């Protein structure tokens, strides 16, 4: 079976750990990772979601923080602050820096982000879950999510990372823009993987800044709509709140209700020009199943908290179960 997952960072990476545990050895897992969180910092290309997926599946992640490397130190960051540089709100650890140095070096040599990613992933793959997953950036072209907001009474547009990390998502969201998306092309392999998939999964990644940019890359939404595989998603919202992160602030800012059902309707049914055939909500949100189904999306209520390896694996099994039923029953 060929499984394609459209992923952001933490939510997607955790789900992938469960998926790798749930699938059979012959199954092929491809992850298409959001790159619209990426930014240039001190001349380095930083790709937060690619690195979270790589470190998480490669056993290099700091599990306490949920991002960055294990046993990290912060000397370079403190030195940069001592030089008076302003961008030290972003957590660049010393070990993590090596990843960004290598990636940036390859990009300057004229390699693509896909090629640089292959080289980085190659280090972590042997003997880890990462070895079971093909990692594709959504695009080799630069796309950056910017947030129109108001800071200290002044309207401004800032990079998503500045909104999230520097401001802790405590400034209002007036609009979200995927800068560069019109001219971005899907990275090599992305459209083919979707077309050849038996199942396409939207894990519980942020709908606006993780899944949103991937789907907005020209050609990806059309590929999802014409795929022969069912597209099944997992709600990142449980009981009206994001489990982790800032999905609620973004949804509210864009006028989408913060609920599992509203996120499904935001993505829309494939039968109505959207991208979803199936959707999982948490058992706490069982009252939303009917509303999702009336939008033309098959919906089930199952436990969605990825608390530990067992619950995460069960969630992946439930996704594959719903996808299997959709395939058997036709859509
Ligand atoms: P990011 O790029 O690091 O923000 O990660 P993602 O976009 O992949 O995932 C972030 C989303 O994952 C947030 O909106 C969370 O609500 C959601 N999330 C995190 N942990 C869980 C969980 O255990 N269960 C569910 N259902 N969602 C989760
Ligand atoms: Ca992200």
From TrEMBL:
- Could you confirm whether the keyword Magnesium appears in this record? yes
One MF term in GO for this entry?
LPPG:FO 2-phospho-L-lactate transferase activity
Encoding gene, per UniProt annotation = cofD
Protein source organism: Aeromicrobium marinum DSM 15272
Instruction: Tell me the protein's name.
Output: LPPG:FO 2-phospho-L-lactate transferase
Q: Which UniProt keywords apply?
A: Magnesium, Transferase
């Amino acid at each position: 079976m060929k499984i394609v997952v459209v992923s952001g960072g933490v939510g997607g990476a955790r789900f992938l750990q469960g998926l790798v545990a749930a699938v059979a050895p012959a199954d092929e897992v491809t992850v298409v990772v959001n790159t619209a969180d990426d930014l240039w910092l001190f001349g380095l290309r930083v790709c937060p979601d690619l690195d979270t997926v790589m470190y998480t599946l490669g056993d290099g992640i700091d599990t306490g923080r949920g991002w960055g490397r294990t046993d990290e130190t912060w000397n370079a960051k403190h030195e940069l602050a001592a030089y008076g540089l302003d961008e030290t709100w972003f957590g660049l650890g010393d070990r993590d820096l090596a990843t960004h140095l290598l990636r940036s070096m390859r990009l300057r040599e004229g390699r693509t982000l896909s090629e640089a990613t292959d080289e980085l992933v190659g280090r972590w793959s042997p003997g880890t879950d990462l070895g079971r997953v093909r990692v594709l950036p959504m695009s080799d072209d630069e796309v950056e999510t910017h947030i129109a907001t108001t800071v200290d009474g002044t309207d401004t547009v800032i990079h998503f990372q500045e909104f999230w990390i520097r401001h802790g998502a405590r400034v209002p969201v007036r609009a979200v823009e995927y800068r560069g998306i019109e001219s971005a092309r899907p990275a090599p392999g992305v459209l083919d993987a979707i077309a050849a998939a038996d199942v396409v999964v939207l894990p519980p990644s942020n709908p606006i800044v993780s899944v949103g940019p991937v789907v907005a890359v020209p050609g990806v939404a059309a590929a999802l709509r014409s795929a022969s595989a069912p597209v099944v998603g997992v709600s990142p919202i449980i009981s009206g709140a994001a489990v982790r992160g800032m999905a609620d602030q973004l949804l509210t800012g864009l006028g989408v209700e913060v609920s599992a059902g509203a996120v499904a309707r935001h993505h829309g049914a494939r039968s109505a020009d959207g991208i979803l055939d199936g959707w999982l909500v948490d058992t706490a949100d069982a009252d939303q199943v009917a509303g999702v189904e009336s939008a033309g999306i098959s919906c089930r209520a199952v436990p969605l908290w990825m608390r530990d390896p067992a619950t995460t694996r069960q969630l992946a099994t439930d996704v594959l179960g719903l996808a299997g039923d959709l395939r058997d029953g036709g859509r």
